[in-house]
Design goal:
The chain is an all-alpha fold. It is built from 1 helix and no strands. 0% of the residues are buried.
Length: 48
């Protein structure tokens, strides 16, 4: 076993890429739906 691949580091990189992808998706969804959600809460507060 002269060459042992570093699989632990590869796994960490894969998890980091997945987390980055999820973060980007959440940011895009909030950017698109943010004003609509804000309007819903504004309407609720004004009706109370």
């Amino acid at each position: 076993m002269l060459y042992a691949p570093k699989e632990k580091g590869q796994g960490l990189v894969e998890y980091a890429l997945i987390l980055v992808l999820v973060a980007v998706v959440v940011i895009v969804i909030l950017a698109l739906l943010g004003p609509a959600i804000g309007n819903v809460f504004s309407n609720l507060v004004s009706n109370i």
